[in-house]
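Reposting from the mailing list since nobody answered there.

I have sequence plus structure tokens for a pair of proteins and want to know whether others read the tokens the same way I do. The first protein:
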Amino acid sequence: MKRFFSILLLVAMSLTLVACKKKKVVESDEATVYFYAYRDAYTQDINHPDILRQQTYKKGELIEEPEEPTRAGYIFGGWYKGLTLREEWNFAEDIIDRNLTLYAKWDPAIYKVSLELNDGVFPPNTNFNGEYDEDGIPYYMFTSGVAQGLHNPVRTGFEFLGWFTREEYRPGDRPITSVDRNISSDVTYYAHWKALRITIRFDVNLEAEPKPVPEPATVPTRVYDYGQTIDFPVLEDTSGIYEFVGWNTRRDGSGVMLVNGEPLEQQQTTRVYAQWILK
């Protein structure tokens, strides 16, 4: 019986040793490092994969720093352990001892966005939140990735068409209403304008005794652009009684005289009256 128990104990010990040998894992002497370039980006860059690179090293080695990634509107700020980006990896000193993931840190770039008003101004109620340079040109200091709407200027006698990226306006150009989030350098936006179309109605304003004979007897309505040179018709009293002296915005001549050769500064439909004096 004693011999039986001894044999049984010996078998149990053998089985235990075999089990221990099966459980023993041979630890690898290699580790892999993964570099993620855009994991924390505002938007993914479709032209670059999220994972920039992966490389296997011997544990205890320094790892090779990859080429700096680029991202429009941002400045690369180094490689960090963890998405919180609190611990920067030092490629000259830190060694790898296990699998590692490093994430690129991105710092928003700041660019100057100049606004060419083309004779426009920002009215006080616009609440323009930018600044003016030494030449009086307004601008924003734009932080990449931060929304920045564009304020609308005004210009007497003109309709604001919008802000454009081209200095010369071309029909069909689409206006922009905010700074492009993805700019990667200083930019200038241009205000473009369209002159108001002003309708001018004419009244020969000659009713007296003896009956004068104005020529022409009536003047058709005309349409001008704001600022266009005035070229109103010159009338004549063929009876020889009155002399034509010009056009006025009031029948009795107490308004504004609109003189040929000067720019038209009316901003809405206007009726003008011929002015006469006795010869």
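The second protein, same order (residues first, tokens after):
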Amino acid sequence: MHKKLLVPKYTAIRQLISIQIRISLNVYAGKSKNLHMNLAHIHLHKVRNKGKISYATSVAFILSKLCNMRATEVAEGIGENLSTKLGGQFFVNVNPSGLIKILVSDQFIANWLDSLISSSSENDLTIDSAGLAYYSPTLFTAQYCHARCCSLLRLGERERLIRPCRATQSSLWLDEDEKIRCDHQTTSCLISELVQIVDWLYDDWESSQDIGKSNRKINWEKNIVGLVNTFTAFWADCRILGTTISPELAQMRFNLIFATKLVLEFLLLNHLGIAAPKSI
């Protein structure tokens, strides 16, 4: 089954980092004939962190056994190469055990959010809705959340507060200190949830193309409910209308609503096979 991608190739953050890890592993290819066979699927997982987006990999432990080297020595070599390749957009740290951690900068997250919004047009997401369940009893909250996002965006346009269909600039996501405008923890939690789901979407797409080696089944119903709950918490803390907040913060919040709407719509239509109503 050939599936569509929500965002262009090489936009999922975990995929971008995985590519650079594979490139870094090439220096060890001569030490093990079975290197690429044994590292066909690099385990790179997103770290649970309420404040920042980061990933970790234990690839150095596997490689150390294949190359008869200490894990810390391998990890430091990979970490140094990654730091060079990824530049100032990612920060690489190697702990004493040999675990490699990669922290994603706020500047990169801002650019990533821009990419998510600007490259995902409604035309790309539209599919034939004939035969789709318009209201699903088990996923009504997800459909309602999508409709709520659409309603908020229409209201923002009507009040001339936003133009959600236009590409934005990363400066709208960042404050004067080049940090994501997060005045509430629920804002960073929503961004983190969006990053995680796009990572899963790309994993699923790779599997459908017989590219990926992971056989892990993704529970889309559970994940979309998780996104809905995260957005609900965000909206409870981060109102826009009737509050005294800066225009930049208001625009940033509308952008997050738009990003959430895009991901919800894609999941409902393409992975769960039910309609994504714009009003209820």
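Reply #1 (J.P.):
I read it the same way you do. Strands lie at 44-46, 54-57, 90-94, 100-104.
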